[in-house]
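It is worth pausing here to work through a concrete case rather than discussing structure prediction in the abstract. The textbook approach is simple: state the sequence, then state the predicted structure, then interpret. We follow exactly that order.
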Amino acid sequence: MAVQRYHDGESPESIYLSLGRSKAWLYKWLDRYEPDNPDWYRDRPRSPLTSPQRTVREIEEIIKLTRLSLYNQDLFCGAQAIRWELEEQNVQPIPSLRTINRILSRNNLTHRRTGRYEPKGAPYPSLPAKLPNFRHQADFVGPRHLRGKAGPLRFYSMNVVDLNTGRCGTQPLFSRSGNAVYEAFWAIWGRLGVPRHLQVDNEMVFYGSPTHPRGMGPLIRLCLHHGIELWFIPQSEPWRNGVVEQFNNHYQQKFLERVAMQTVDQLREGALAFEQKHNSRYRYSKLSGKTPLEALAQTGKRPLRFPPDEPAPETPLQKPRTGRYHLIRFIRSDCKLDIFGERFRVSPELQYEYVVATIDVKEQKLKLIHEQLQVDEFDYKLR
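Step two, the predicted structure:
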């Protein structure tokens, strides 16, 4: 109405005074008047057209494409993985993890993959990770090959994860012999600290030899001599070591497939740099967004236990006189308990149940535990 009166020749002063408005108000609407636009008089959004804090459009598109690429390759595709990918692509500026998470949320890119379905059934004996270094999981990666001038060189990696803090240790080795394995553990414990419990699968190098199942291989002896209880997961159930298995994928994607190495020195230096980067920069949702080292610092001043600052003990190690080690086993229809190839008959009541077979070195006994209760016992003379 005010604009129409103005166009009919009425003076501006009489228009805005009669309407109880200001001069600026009238001229604002005169300036906005568009005769060809029927909605010219509607209010406009009050939000600013630009924001100095908003991520530039190009960076946001790169983040979306990077996330899609990682997801389609079945790789880690969270904010930390995306940030590392941007660093390797030399994208500038590198947005913060918080910014990447906001972009993913704004574009509905936060859905997770469906994890492995684990059927409900027999209860599985669980060992909590109450404190730093209370429980470690360990596993091999390899063989892999260095492509140097002297030809391909085969190597492996021993990877260890502390379940409480998420800290990792990774040690290259060039043999899967018992001595090489326990030297790798010795080196990792020198950086992570000695665990109370160590969980591994049933690879022969971890327990010794199926020919002498009671002989206690080098790793079993090393653990017993240093107060570590070794746990062997059920046969053919690698997902029971799921934390270190997932870390192995991360190690493969972010180190072995990205870092060019041709010499042993480059491999060792690169593995140590990757370990330090993971522990100081990788953030876990299970740690409330903290890095492994931040999670360790938050636990207080409880000191970690480290091995003596010296080379690994020479082999063969003496036969330990005390200590325990454990095997988790699933009892099948034959009601047989498999201890590194040696079989023991158990009660039919344990059929299709998980049990813990604990070998007590001092008592020379094999104790069978089901749901935290001892249900059987066998003489077990160690050799």
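Step three, interpretation. Residues 57-106 form one domain. The chain has a mean pLDDT of 86.
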